[in-house]
Amino acid sequence: MKERGIPLPQIVSVSCINPPNKVFQNQVKPLVKHLFQHSFKDIERLLTVFQSGQIESRYFVKELNWFEKDHSFREKNHEFIEWATKLSVEAIIKCLSNKEFLISTVKYDEIDAIFFISTTGLSTPSIDARIMNELPFSSHTKRIPIWGLGCAGGVSGLARAFDYCLAYPKAKVIVLTVELCSLTFQKNDQSKSNLIGASLFADGAACTLICGDQALVPKRKDINYPTIVDSFSTLLPHSLDVMGWEVKEEGLFVIFSKDIPSLVKRHFKDQVVKFLKKHHLSIDQVDCWIAHPGGKKVLDAFVEALEIEEQAIQPSREILKNYGNMSSATVIYVLQNFMRIKREQGQGTIGLACALGPGFSSELLLVRWDP
Questions:
Q1: Superfamily designation of domain 226-369
Q2: Are 339 and 220 in contact (CB under 8 A)?
Q3: What is residue 259's three-state secondary structure?
Q4: CB of 212 within 8 A of CB of 9?
Q5: In what order do the strands lie in the sheet with 113-118?
Q6: Which residue, 66, 122, 133, 209, shows the most beta carbons closer than 10 Å to its own?
């Protein structure tokens, strides 16, 4: 662990925003059956993923009947731009005025940089520029849009904000993670990957406020805020086909390999051990596993690979159950729950945020709640 006297950034506030349409698995399943039944003789067996995946509900920006019709890439991307901007604005407003974590509102013109994370739509100018036309940020606010990191993007975004605040200890920055996975659904793609994705992916947005050690922030005195200690990135060579998008005329087609859980079991523990060893820590010293819930099998692989108790991963399972996999935004939902749990506890706590993404890659972020 780095020396406690070294100035380190803190996570000060967080907010999560759900799109307007809550859907349950027993509502989505009949639609998926209707769309895929002529392509698979064993459709009933494949549809068991709606129960075995341990997801009960999710949120979409569009109503369920919208997905029964064909939509062009242009139309879906237009919806992405409109909804990503709207949800981002809501998430920022809530984060900067969140009385759970702040005694007063942080002003927009005090934000030095915006890190915008997404992989489910395209926009140039980027969504952060559109946000700055909606909210009174300084026109000199730095914009760092990051695209293509998939599910790993949430942890990676926090890590890059950490780097920024180390370099500029007076800075206040926000990390926006906005993923509208449902808009990428390809109605006419009859692959198993698309069917599984239809049972798993969802929409969501989250905003996190990270502040340098010297930043003047209206923090509450009764809250124990998590300090970010370090980050760790890993790219597994020659694994580009494990997950991601294939870009075609109709838009983004999901690549989702069945080998992901086995790759986690073979490679993930070594990366975690290497990172923790750098800080003279071991796996059994991690109190909070802030794990991105990529799916039931991925979480099962986490538990098996790391040889941790099932209870350690339960907060991630709860988010998966109630929200599905919202790609990069999902881990921020898990982080928010841990911040609520730990905010008034006085003892020291070690946390590790972790997520996997295209590449095949992993992102780790070491945090601590000081006594």
A1: Thiolase/Chalcone synthase (3.40.47.10)
A2: no
A3: coil
A4: yes
A5: 142-147, 113-118, 172-180, 203-211, 10-17, 226-235, 361-369, 349-357, 288-291
A6: 209
CA distance 354 to 307: 15
Question: Position of tokens 């914009």?
Answer: 143
| Alpha helices (H) in 141-293, listed in sequence order | 153-167, 192-200, 260-278
Q: What is the location of CATH 3.40.47.10 in the chain?
A: 10-211, 226-369
Between CA 216 and CA 166 the distance in angstroms is 15
Task: Give the domain 10-211 fold.
Answer: Peroxisomal Thiolase; Chain A, domain 1 (3.40.47)
Give me the helix-helix angle, 153-167 and 330-342, nearest 10°: 60
Beta carbons of 244 and 335 less than 8 angstroms apart: no
Note the pTM of the prediction, 2 decimals: 0.94
Classified as helix, coil or strand, 287 is: coil
Give the active site residue among 16, 151, 165, 207: 151
Tell me: the pLDDT tens digits for 239-298?
A: 777 777 888 888 888 877 777 877 888 888 999 999 999 999 999 999 999 999 989 999
Q: Nearest-5° angle of CA 117, CA 122, CA 124?
A: 95
Q: Identify whether 207 is a catalytic site residue.
A: no
- CB burial string 195-212: b at 16+ within 10 A, e below: bbbbbbbbbbbbbbbbbb
Asked if 366 contacts 228 with a C-beta cutoff of 8 angstroms, the reply is yes
89-126 core/surface letters (b: 16 or more CB in 10 A; e: else): bebbbbbbebeebbeeebebebbbbbbbbbbbbbbeeb
